[in-house]
Amino acid sequence: MGRLMIAIALFGLFAAAASARPKDQTSIYKSAEAKHFTTAEGVELSPAFVDYFYAELRNELTKSKLVTEVIGEGEAVDDADAAKSLVISGTITEYKKGSVVKSALIGFGAGFKSLKMDAGVVRRSDKQNLCTIQVHVKVDPRWNEKVMAKGAAREVVKEMKKALTEGAKSTAPEATKPS
Amino acid sequence: MAPLSLGNRSLRFAAAAFLFFSTTSIAADEPKPKPENTITLQLGDPVPMQKFEHSPKFWISDVTDRSGNPQPMLVLKERGGIFLDRQPTAIVKDSLEHSLKAANLLAPDQASADLVVRVYLFHFGLASGSALDFFGKVEFSGMVKNPKTGESLEVKATGTSIANGAVRKKNIQKNVQENIEAALRDATRNFVRGTQLKDAVAQLYKGDLPVPTSAPAATPN
């Protein structure tokens, strides 16, 4: 009984700590435009995959709250907001279909579908490259390739968030440094 | 003619029965529009327009369905089907007019319009996504034409949305409706706030300036 009480108390403590964290962190950037990723020569993926990945990337960007607004491809941005606007583009460099037989017989990740992509984030106003991301996603060959797009989009946004927040932290003291 | 043997007869009967039941089961699977499986799509608040140097008056002349979908009003076939209450062409036309009207950029009629837009709809509704969610997509292109000069330019727009999947019929209907509405809003926004429209307006409409009557470069010798 005593152990149960301790477990409940610990759970309550964790829950309180989690709720105390700021949920709505203020976004550094005002808007982000995700572009349709291009496919490198030899990559056999349907245009539907690229479309779905584009939608999923926008969805993940909205969920991450990294930017205040996620705009569509080719939308106009006010000149005043261009310095706080990001443009995300990239290329799918490699896609391997995988093998169900290998996956079933060997296991341990053998025969998995594999997708590699390079993404770049630039600032709209001066086209400065803010970060470059390389993502490698592997999924079970029996799964739909759109599931792979979902995982890849999540990974791109996660890496992007990490790189941009680290970049913001490292540039913040420089900005306040007296010249 | 030799009389049919018992085996031959039963074989024929089985084949006929198989054909009959397979046709009736296909007919039974075909969903029918009913009030409970019909959704009404609305854009909601109008999409704010971008600022143009010279504000022209637009007119949406026509929306043509180029999707090649034989049943454009059927958005989901599974689970008894989900239907739209209107044709997708009418929904797209309404949503564009709604946003243009709110920004006071909609002409009262085609004759008084500075720029006439003819829309070609390529996709409206759900597209193939992962089996875990609904992927809504609206894709169209507008031919923006200056009726005075006859010049025209194409403006493309795409809207996408991803909504969570559902198990219950009621939730599926709700999620699909929200998903397509979000994709429609996204496509409308992509059109009215796009740089392509901005460039087209800048090129095709120069305000109330008189149109030059002589164009030596354009006339063939």
Task: Describe the model.
The complex is a heterodimer of chains A (179) and B (221). Chain A has 179 residues and is α/β, with parallel strands linked by helices. Chain A has 4 helices and 6 strands, in the order αββαββαββα. Helices cover 42% and strands 26% of the residues of chain A. In chain A, strands 1, 2, 3, 4, 5 and 6 form a 6-stranded mixed sheet that branches. In chain A, strand 5 (113-123) and strand 6 form a beta hairpin. The model of chain A is unreliable at 172-179 (pLDDT under 50). Chain B has helices spanning 6-29, 88-102, 169-192, 195-204, and strands at residues 38-39, 58-65, 74-76, 82-84, 115-127, 133-145, 152-164. In chain B, helix 2 crosses helix 3. The longest helix of chain B has 24 residues, at 6-29. The termini of chain B are far apart. The model of chain B is unreliable at 213-221 (pLDDT under 50). Chain A binds chain B through residues 48, 51-52, 54-56, 58-59, 71-76, 144, 146-147, 149-150, and chain B through 50, 127-132, 135, 137, 156, 158-162, 186, 189-190, 193-196, 198.
| Helix content estimate of chain A | 40-55%
Distance between the termini of chain A: 64 Å
Please work out how many helical segments of chain B DSSP would assign: 4
Strand content of chain B: 15-25%
Helix content of chain B: 25-40%
Instruction: Using the CA coordinates, give the radius of gyration of chain B.
Output: 25 Å
Largest sheet of chain A: 6 strands, mixed
| DSSP strand count of chain B | 7
Structural class of chain B: alpha/beta
Low-confidence stretches of chain A: 172-179
